[in-house]
């Protein structure tokens, strides 16, 4: 009988090792395989924190350092630098270690950046050399060549930003490396997500999230490909409570005692998966959690505890499934000043700069400054309102910096608009327009403001007498109205002049005359006394008052 030595070929070796790994890890992965359908890099579905594992439904919550893993669109909810870590042996005596380490770095203006490392390591697999009889194929010798490992590791980079009021977007790119003994490959994937924090004014505490995992994927040295997974989630918060005042540099911090969430995930190669979970903070420092996961049946029930003290947190979860119980523990830490406080300081400074600029008539520059403030925090309603007002102004007039009565009127109008005084805005614009009726953009802006105030539109003025202003024309028309018995019209036109020039004594004289002709002597006396306050040398009015006395 002739004996020969045969080393297993690379293809046979890889296939054999994979089979061995699957057999040895069946107790670890049986539950997850039911969801993923045995998809590549299924360890990316194992979880990143005991908190999320206990709740199950975490996609629309994702408000801690694991947001990169669960939903990068949740990263803008992290206002301080934060790190989260999980290390566990999946099941006792399996030599299978699972790790997650994530870091979040928020910025004031440019969003939130995050990086994480996720690893599944199985060690101690036996590597052998087989010698067999080529005629009978009986194994005649098995030689032990030591052990080999199965290592799967993912490097994840993520970014999240609030792009509009209560709307966050998040992107994640992951590099997955797999090494089985001497054989290795890698895969790349990109996730895209959106989170709405406060669905509408009727449901301000409802979060809704949508996303796609592995929307774009590539593979190298393997035919495996990361599966596309569609995700949808919603959560609602109850019972707002003040947590603490952190330091003299921090604002008050709030949290919600109760959060309830539900998620749905659809792997294109597997069944629809649903998750339901809740978190309740029994005390400020202790939380209880409960979660359910299922396909067409209830697959797993989870529960857990969470504790926090100042900047530190620790979470515990356990799950009950077909294989019994499994336990997870994770920890987190925050440090540094909240960027929300920094944001408020930056926005406050930018608002002050904008006020100084539009007060000086630099409306376009003020608009650009407010746009910068809005980019820092799109959820600031006051900034959005100021910006909208200035955008309305700059659509017609970009600046009014000269020391003329026209420009003074425009500046007064803009300041009044920013203070929500629409009537003063209209009157100031009318005054400015009367000072320069040739300014067509100013007339257009005036008409727009009159529309917003529900007032009659000022018609475009055409000078009939050289050197006359609209105020001169209105005074002339008011005097004619008095002579022709149209006293009410005369009073109205005088009031329009006084709205623009409160110290116009001619308009006051005519108004007093109109009241006198209407037999409203007391009103006439009050108006004429105002004339004497402004011009004590007015003999005509003095004579009228003496006769009335």
The largest sheet, given as strand count, sense and whether it forms a barrel, is: 14 strands, antiparallel, barrel
The proportion of residues in beta strands is 35-45%
Counting DSSP E segments of at least 2 residues, the number of strands comes to 15
**Mean of residue pLDDT values:** 84
Net shape = elongated
Q: What is the chain-wise order of helices and strands?
A: EHHHHEEEEEEEEEEEEEEHHHHHHHHHHH
Radius of gyration: 38 Å
Distance between the termini: 147 Å
Binned, the helix content reads: 25-40%
Oligomeric description of these chains: single chain
Structural class: alpha+beta
Count of DSSP H/I helices: 15
Briefly say what this structure is:
The protein has 549 residues and is α+β, with helices and mostly antiparallel strands.
Task: Describe the protein.
Strand 13 and strand 14 form a beta hairpin. Helix 5 (339-359) runs antiparallel to helix 6 (363-376) and helix 12 runs antiparallel to helix 13 (505-517). The model is unreliable at 1-37 and 245-250 (pLDDT under 50). The protein has helices at 10-24, 26-36, 50-55, 67-70, 339-359, 363-376, 381-394, 405-418, 422-435, 440-453, 470-483, 487-500, 505-517, 521-534, 539-548; strands at residues 4-6, 81-89, 96-106, 112-132, 139-164, 167-180, 183-197, 206-220, 229-245, 252-267, 272-283, 286-294, 298-309, 312-321, 324-335. The chain is built from 15 helices and 15 strands. The chain has a 14-stranded antiparallel barrel with strand order 2-3-4-5-6-7-8-9-10-11-12-13-14-15. The protein is 35% helix and 37% strand. With 549 residues, it is an alpha+beta fold.
